[in-house]
Amino acid sequence: MNEPTLHCPPTTASTVHYPAPVPAPAPMVPMQPDQISAVQSIVLPDGRVVTGYAMDAAKPEPFAAKPPVSRAAVNIALGGIGFAAVCGGLLMLTTFIAALAALIQQLVILAAVIFGGFIAAQVLGSGRGGGTTVNIRKAVIKRNHFHS
Asked: What is the tens place of the pLDDT at every residue in 49-91?
């Protein structure tokens, strides 16, 4: 069995770069500047040594004393909120009452239209043979003995 061959167009010469190994770091010599505290070293359980400078914990800024809020200001604010809530509730109540009145009015009109339509159908539909037709000229009135 013949293996397939790939036919590629000729390419230009390319340079292959191989990664260079990083040399082992030189041992660090601690230097102590005048303004920075002394270097501290910690030995980890696996034998490595971690060296660094000691830092003081950051101190939070002192809180500024808040001025006390007067009870009158609190009462005025709460009264304003309560007044606004009552006004909003009354507005919603009047809107609800107006909507309920409009609904009742529409139901009354609907009932009148349905009932009126029923009555009109009874009156105007009597000629279809379902009602009783009275012909006065052919009627026999027994009281006065009129016969036709």
From this structure: 888 776 777 788 888 778 888 899 999 999 999 999 999 999 9
Half-sphere exposure of 75 (CA within 13 A, CB side): 3
What is the token pair recorded at 126? 């009597």
SS3 125: helix
What is the C-alpha to C-alpha distance for residues 90 and 83, in angstroms, rounded to an integer?
11
CB 119 within 8 A of CB 126: no
Residues 6+ apart with CB under 8 A from 39: 30, 32, 51, 52, 53
Q: Round to whole Å and give the CA distance between 10 and 102.
A: 90
Report pTM. Answer: 0.34
C-alpha distance from residue 70 to each of 66, 73, 75, 79, 139 (Å): 12, 5, 9, 14, 101
Amino acid 54 reads A
